[in-house]
Amino acid sequence: MFAYILRRLLYAVPILIGVNLLTFALFFVVNTPDDMARLQLGAKHVTADAIERWKVEHGYDKPLFLNTQATGSAQLTDTIFFRHSATMFVFRFGKGDDGRDIANEIRIRMDRVWRLHCRCSSSVSWSTSPSPC
Fold first, then answer.
1. 84 in Cβ contact with 62 (< 8 Å)
2. In terms of pTM, does the model score above 0.70?
3. Could you tell me which residues come within 8 angstroms of residue 94 by beta carbon, excluding any fewer than 6 positions away?
4. CA distance 10 to 52
5. What is the largest CA-CA distance in the chain?
6. pLDDT by residue for the chain (133 residues), tens digit each?
């Protein structure tokens, strides 16, 4: 049984990495950093300098996956992917582009889900039909 669980956990790692890479790539195909800057700054009357400044402030001025201008491990770590996506594997969610703490947002929402689950679970009677909650 232990070997089965260990094997399943080991299978989960490449699947999570693949899903993360695919989601990240699709996101940046749809939304370029310039588009994100325009949305945050307001679509009308935004200068190219303001867009560049926003990209530098939020780390979107770096390459997506591989930084050929850096040396050593910085070639992989000084990228948009590492800054915004790979750090999630160690539960460092950082801040959203609007400044909100993402980990705190997850905590708040999971607390609500947990309370709702406990409320519904406590009202279920096992001798009757399942509760419609």
1. no
2. no
3. 84, 87, 102
4. 41
5. 67
6. 899 999 999 999 899 889 988 998 898 888 888 888 888 888 778 888 988 998 888 888 888 888 888 888 888 888 888 887 878 888 888 887 777 888 888 888 888 888 887 877 665 555 455 545 5
